[in-house]
From TrEMBL:
<dbReference type="InterPro" id="IPR005886">
    <property type="entry name" value="UDP_G4E"/>
</dbReference>
<feature type="domain" description="NAD(P)-binding">
    <location>
        <begin position="5"/>
        <end position="328"/>
    </location>
</feature>
<keyword id="KW-0520">NAD</keyword>
<dbReference type="Pfam" id="PF16363">
    <property type="entry name" value="GDP_Man_Dehyd"/>
</dbReference>
<keyword id="KW-0119">Carbohydrate metabolism</keyword>
<protein>
    <recommendedName>
        <fullName>UDP-glucose 4-epimerase</fullName>
        <ecNumber>5.1.3.2</ecNumber>
    </recommendedName>
</protein>
<comment type="similarity">
    <text>Belongs to the NAD(P)-dependent epimerase/dehydratase family.</text>
</comment>
<comment type="pathway">
    <text>Carbohydrate metabolism; galactose metabolism.</text>
</comment>
<comment type="subunit">
    <text>Homodimer.</text>
</comment>
<keyword id="KW-0413">Isomerase</keyword>
<dbReference type="InterPro" id="IPR016040">
    <property type="entry name" value="NAD(P)-bd_dom"/>
</dbReference>
<dbReference type="InterPro" id="IPR036291">
    <property type="entry name" value="NAD(P)-bd_dom_sf"/>
</dbReference>
Amino acid sequence: MDKILVTGGLGFIGSHTVVELQNEGYEVVIIDDLSNSTEKVLDGITAITGKKPIFVKLDLKDKAGVESFFKAHSDVKGVIHFAASKAVGESVEKPLLYYENNINTLVYILKELQKLPSASFIFSSSCTVYGQADELPITENAPVKQAESPYGNTKQIGEEIIRDTCKVSSSIKAIALRYFNPVGAHESVEIGELPIGVPQNLVPFITQTGIGLREQLSVFGDDYPTPDGTCIRDYIHVVDLAKAHVVALKRLLEDKNKENYETFNLGTGKGSSVLEVVGAFERVSGKKLNYKIVGRREGDIISAYADTTKANEELGWKTKLTLDDALRSAWNWEQKVRG
Ligand code: UD1
């Protein structure tokens, strides 16, 4: 079976994707620098799949290290590239760190892929490239808007770098997957999200409040032009998202792609408000969540959810799990980690 490199394979979405790849029989090699993960995640992956992936601890900014990796693993057929920094606020404080971490590393990998006879490349992009879209649901044809943060900009620039590379390197085929809001954990509770410090994202903040680690969730604004006044997002279960990576990779490996570079939105197609997510948590946990409405968070968009037609029809992929499934698994995971 094909050997697939997963960078950032010990992270939240990476680890769930490694599980799905191994379940499909792929041989997985993980590169991770452990900057936002731990080696223990390997045990979780092994417990679920019965197979320990190869793990190489490497910082992808080490260009020589990347070259030697590809010399040692010249039989790699595909790469799923998750490794990146992703904290929006930090990226505003330290833009160059973000450009170095997210752009240099991408360039080094693509340079190595150019040397291979053929390579399939999947890129972790984000719906953040659309900003506040004028039309909902958001299709892949919606215009890419000026990025709100250096983090968002690295995703836009990353996509452009890949598109330009595919134009001149016919041996490289690529798909950029634009994720909406990934949440939840593997149902086995062997792997899940492990935020460092105070979580910035809604669902880990909710589960940490539920377990008593945080006193109260602040709901950022209830005066938006939405039915209940809180912002709307498209929360996608991380296991559904992970499966989409395997489907996209197969499309490239089996030459089923229509163009050398393609983009797909990955979401459920359904928008949920902040208060609906709180409601889902309360339903699945049987607990009342302590929350209060506070002012708006700067830079938040009002509403974003995916038009899933292209992913459904072209990839033949659809989400199967619900918001309640996601909150239930996230809650089970929180209880396991802190319980
Ligand atoms: C955020 C980032 C986005 C990034 C994505 C990655 C910002 C402005 N956007 O998206 O660029 O791609 O994470 O996952 O940081 N909320 C609360 N209270 C909280 C936390 C969140 O009310 O303590 C609300 C937010 O206002 C928002 C929703 O929950 O309406 C989801 O927030 P979050 O999980 O941070 O995701 P995004 O804002 O969609």
